[in-house]
Amino acid sequence: MSLGIIRLLPDHIANQIAAGEVVQRPASVVKELLENSVDAQADHISLLIEDAGKSLIKVIDNGCGISDTDLRLAFERHATSKILNAEDLFRIQTMGFRGEALASIAAVSHVECISKTADDAIGSKIVLEGGKVRSQTPEACTTGTIISVKNLFFNIPARRSFLKSDTVELRHIYEEFLRIALAHPSRRLRLLNNGHEIYNLLPGNLKQRILSIFGNKVGENLLPIQEHTSIIRINGYLTRPEISKKIKGDQYFFINKRFIKNRYLQHGIMAAYEGLLPTDSFPAFFINLEIDPSEIDVNIHPTKTEVKFKDDRAIYQLLKSAARKTLGINAVAQPIDFEQENSFQLPSDFNGTPKIPTIEVDPEYNPFKSQSEQSRKNTTVHVPAFNIPKNWEELYQIAALTHPKNHQHVETPSIPDLQVESSSLADTVEIFQLFRKFILYKKENQVFIIHQQYAHERVLYENMLKSIRNKTILSQQMLIPLKLEFTAHEAEFLQNCRSLLSEFGFDYEWIGKKVIAVYGVPIYSDASNAEEIFRKLCEEQSDLTGPEEIIQDNLCRKIAISSSYKVGQSLTQEIMAKLVSELFKLENPAAGIRKRKTFVQIQSSDIDHWFN
């Protein structure tokens, strides 16, 4: 055996490898720095980011600060003030404890840190580059810490090239910020992106924090969950089933004010909602679990978002029981909220500013005249006009357009000849709906079993894609505008992509800082699906970044999936026949847009074999 194969890595390479476990993206830096500010007992924390955190991540706090002698040591690996021995790992009360965060961040960036304690007359400033200290000098500053992380991954170009688009990285940063904000509602937190203020959250209780982030609609539909036992203390809020969403989000678990991910506990909450929600809907919840640190292990993952329980089954049952009790009580009566803010509360459908009530007096009123005479003077009511095409047939002609290209080829069985020309279609073809999910179409000695949702998705997708590329897409105006409320960063995203969405037929404008009024949607989509489409766009913002063709394709897919006939929806004979006809006019009708078949074909001879 040859000698000298195994060798020690140089320190700078080992540090970069170790840093990769902690610093995966800019959001990882944000998480570690915000947690350090929380551990420093800061009650006012500001986060400033530029270029989605790639150029600058800056955190300013008014915490206890770091002394001149400790500042340099704080950036050494495994240097920590949180633990002294192995037993302390099972009594952890702080957010950080490994002593890896600052060292890992400094190893892959340029770091400048200014800090001062209350006992020091002057602060200290340290500058590091790639983990190496370049300078440390006295600096005049207030009590607290200001840390700036610049040029993340400057010395690891390969890691930097694997970062996602600014939209995706920003979404991760916002999520980390909101986790800290919800876990610590008594602290004031601000977030600025490229100099623009996104969040300015004032201190308060948890309900006030939720309302300031997610808006009045969520705030008005919170149900308090509370359970105190010798094992665990459960506090927080669930949302009413009526405001559940089609997408999974806004679900937060905290263990001793530390955000965690735990599918087992999440299943317990969803089990409590069983029978109250459709299978494809998800509630929001904000739950903090207080438990003896010795009963959990938070030292199983570098990011500390996963924990182990000594008795996870007991926690599961207590959480499920508490959630069921909350939902059961509030199904009968609305509880009194003793934490309700004393200031005047505005309803969720309010926009603008309160107006002073006025009294209208008719100076021409005569009590001696009959009521019929006075009612002749009616005030003229102006009804808003909408841009509706004069020729209604244009809408159906545009909806019938198909797109025969640019799709992955899937081998297609022989296509039936189905003609849709008259209203008596139901009498000329043999077509049926099965289980409110499939369409059975018989043609001679063949039977086609068509998935109504996948088939309709494909038809809508093809029609819309061709219309947008031919610049012939139209918008259908809504009779009553739909008002939707979003979080601050979702509102920022919708503002940035407004011109893009307008090309697809979405007509909306801002009526508040985080509220939009939707006036029109594409003719291919149902107005009732408008909210679902907007929510999905905000949830999956990465689909609206990249080349124009990819953005168009992704958006057409989202609109088609949201607007298609759903499983469980009853269809008439005419609707089914029209759908089948449009499907088989496509060049490759068997391929669904979710990489699933739209139909299967059965010969009569195949059925004969079943009975042999």
The overall average pLDDT, rounded, is: 80
Number of strands: 22
Question: Helicity range of the residues?
Answer: 25-40%
> Uncertain spans, ≥5 residues at pLDDT below 50?
374-415, 417-428
Cα-based radius of gyration, to the nearest Å? 30 Å
What coarse outline follows from CA principal-axis ratios?
globular
Distance between the termini: 67 Å
CATH topology of the largest domain: Ribosomal Protein S8, Chain: A, domain 1
- Proportion of residues in β-strands: 15-25%
Count of separate DSSP helical elements: 19
Major beta sheet, strand line-up: 5-4-3-6-2-1-7-8
CATH superfamily descriptor of the largest domain: MutL, C-terminal domain, regulatory subdomain
Oligomer: single chain
Given helix and strand content, the structural type is alpha+beta
CATH class of the largest domain: Alpha Beta
Number of domains: 3
Looking at the overall shape, the CATH architecture of the largest domain is 2-Layer Sandwich
